[in-house]
Amino acid sequence: MKRLAVVGFGAAAIGFLEGLIETGRIKDYSVSIFEKGKDHMHNTISGVRMDGKIFISKGMGGEIDVPIDVQQKVVEFYLTHSGYRPTLHDRSNVIEYLKSFEKDGKKIEFGESFADEESYRLFYHHGFEPVKAYFFHLGTDVLKQTNNNLFQYFSSFKNIEFRFNTAVQEIEIGQRFKVFTDEGEEFFDELVVAVGRSGHRLMDKIKERYPHLVKENYYVDIGVRYELPDHVMEKLFEMYEVKVRYKASTGYMCRLFCQNPSGKVTLERYEDFTTVNGYSDTHHKTENTNFAVLVTTRFTEPFKDPTGYGKNLAKLANILAGDDRKVLLQTYGDFKDYRRTKRLGRVSPTLDESSFILGDANLVFPSKIRESLVDFIENLNKVINGVAYFDNLLYAVEVKFYSNKFSNDVIKNLHVIGDCSGWTRSIQYATSMGYMRARA
Fold it and tell me: Of 258, 275, 285, 263, nearest to 355 (Cα)?
């Protein structure tokens, strides 16, 4: 049997393993899964921390071509391993079939963005580019069971072993692949690297050692997590998530994504800095909606470290918050008027008060990014009245990194997949990339 190392037990790795199982080729391998998390509930997929929105769309989630039938298969895979079962068995209309999945008598949460032509035209009229998609929402609470079910599923194969609490510090490419951990070094015939966005330190080492495998990246998305009352957004809840792009007066492209109706704001912790994110549970609802507003910043030569730029802005926000495990919280009105927030208004934050400090995000953002955020929110208010309420909340900062794109056609038996590859930025596309890579 060939020795296969899988670094990181996340969405891409899950897709890769499922691809091997589906083709029957899993029997050809002895698989070792290295995961720095202490167990399967603290894995690279962000485990119980991610929101569990799985979509079907050609307009977002990555820069690879994922056929719709593969996306549908991925949705069904996650629904099935979350304990959902279909009540329809006619697959002639796949979306209706997937919508019929239910658990304990409750249907899967579903939404379709911009199915209503009037909404599409309204956003388009005000300069926004609406993104169409189907959404299936598991919820963070359900994901605990999903994670456990997936672990049990893969553990049932005697040739798959999990090595939790084992961080891979470096890899060496030769006739075989050498994997370095705290426990020493091991050799493998084939290697899958699927460490997600949180594995940036390992990826930096690989890029530095093997630059011929990497295409330069010049992009980083920087912005805020925005929180406001449900009633402002409720007329759009039927589409579950609003995803739009907008070119600001600064020339920068802005986007709204990761909307969480009745959700919560949460921290996203990296090794040496903290950013903000959001999620929503299936059963535990709040009265607030949160979403990300991000500004895409593109750099040109000679600057080659957009990831470092985003990390340092996040660290600056942590410094201003007085702790590398806290973020800044500000009302939109104060942010717009360049005032430090000293007290909140009508909107109560869903992030625990131990995780933020009231402050001034204007001290973090460069002027073009700051102006782009205000321009976006003011124009969005023309479509969704109330988005620009003075006491709505913004948390700083949220950052989405674009990894350098890895070439998977240079080294035989090397597979760099998922968000760490630079080609995907979603659970759907990361899983699909791993699945398609294994089948190919």
Answer: 275
Specify the long-range contacts of residues 247-250, CB closer than 8 Å, at least 24 apart.
247/127, 248/295, 248/371, 248/372, 248/375, 248/376, 249/371, 249/372, 249/375, 250/368, 250/371, 250/372, 250/375
Q: Is the dihedral of CA 76, 82, 88, 89 positive or negative?
A: positive
Global pTM?
Answer: 0.80
Of 52 and 184, the structure prediction assigns the larger pLDDT to 184
Torsion of CA 354, 355, 358, 364, to 10 degrees: 160
pLDDT in tens, 7-56: 999 999 999 999 999 999 999 999 999 999 888 777 655 543 466 889 99
What is the average per-residue pLDDT within 156-168? 96
Question: What pLDDT was estimated at residue 53?
Answer: 82
Q: How far apart are CA 95 and CA 248, in angstroms?
A: 35
Hey, is 410 helix, strand or coil?
coil
- pLDDT of residue 283 exceeding 80, the answer is no
Residue 193: predicted pLDDT: 97
Amino acid at 368: K
Helices (H), 286-419: 306-320, 332-336, 367-383
The set of residues, in sequence order, having a beta carbon less than 8 Å from that of 36 and lying 6+ positions away, is: 8, 44, 165, 166, 167, 168
Among 40-44, 172-176, 389-393, whose mean pLDDT is lowest? 40-44
> What confidence score (pLDDT) does residue 44 get?
53
Q: Checking DSSP bridges between strand 2-7 and strand 29-35, what pairing results, if any?
A: parallel
Two structure tokens written together for 264 = 């919560």
Q: What is the β-pairing status of strands 133-137 and 53-56?
A: antiparallel
Q: Which three-class secondary structure state does DSSP give residue 375?
A: helix
Average pLDDT over residues 227-233: 97
Cβ atoms of residues 187 and 377 within 8 Å: no
Angle between helices 140-155 and 11-23 (to 10 degrees): 40
Q: Quick one: CA dihedral 133, 136, 137, 138, positive or negative?
A: negative
Cα distances (Å, whole numbers) of residue 411 to 1, 175, 187, 193? 20, 10, 16, 13
Instruction: Locate 21 and state its tokens.
Output: 């199982």
Q: Who's near 225: CB < 8 A, 6+ residues apart? A: 265, 276, 277, 278, 290, 291, 292, 394, 395, 398
**Residue 342 DSSP symbol:** -
Give dist(CA 350, CA 396) in Å, integer.
14
Number of Cβ within a 10 Å radius of residue 248: 19
Question: Are residues 275 and 267 in contact, defined by beta-carbon separation less than 8 angstroms?
Answer: yes
Beta strands per DSSP E along 8-77: 29-35, 53-56
Per-residue pLDDT, 47: 43
